[in-house]
Design brief:
By secondary structure, this protein is mainly alpha-helical. It is built from 5 helices and 2 strands. A hairpin with a 2-residue loop joins β1 and β2.
Length: 110
């Protein structure tokens, strides 16, 4: 797995720190390795093309998504290597004190 440093992690987290970009990224994660066309993404998320283009550029520059050509069309897909590296970076020192790590989701609104 590709290693990620703090600078790249911050860039990726900053790209995900926007509700629309997070929605686009999560949609592409669920779409799988074939990805989705910008038109399909826009339809699912409900974004106009110029706004979506901006968000795709931000996610791409952070390394979280890749664009690939299929014929005359571009499809975007999640970069699972980058995603897994980011999660590994965040979990790198998890429970270094020898305690068991909890992977149970917590209620962030409580």
């Amino acid at each position: 797995m590709e290693s990620i440093d703090a600078t790249r992690a911050v860039k990726a987290l900053a790209a995900l720190a926007h509700d629309r970009r997070l929605s686009v990224f999560r949609l592409l994660v669920t779409a799988g390795p074939d990805g989705m066309s910008p038109g399909a993404i826009a339809e699912q998320i409900g974004l106009p093309a110029p706004t979506l283009s901006f968000h795709l550029k931000e996610l791409s520059q952070a390394g979280l998504i890749d664009g690939h050509n299929q014929g005359r069309h571009i499809f975007y897909r999640a970069n699972y290597t980058c995603m897994n590296s980011l999660v590994s970076f965040l979990m790198e020192n998890c429970c270094a004190a020898g305690r068991a790590c909890s992977t149970t989701p917590i209620d962030m609104e409580a």
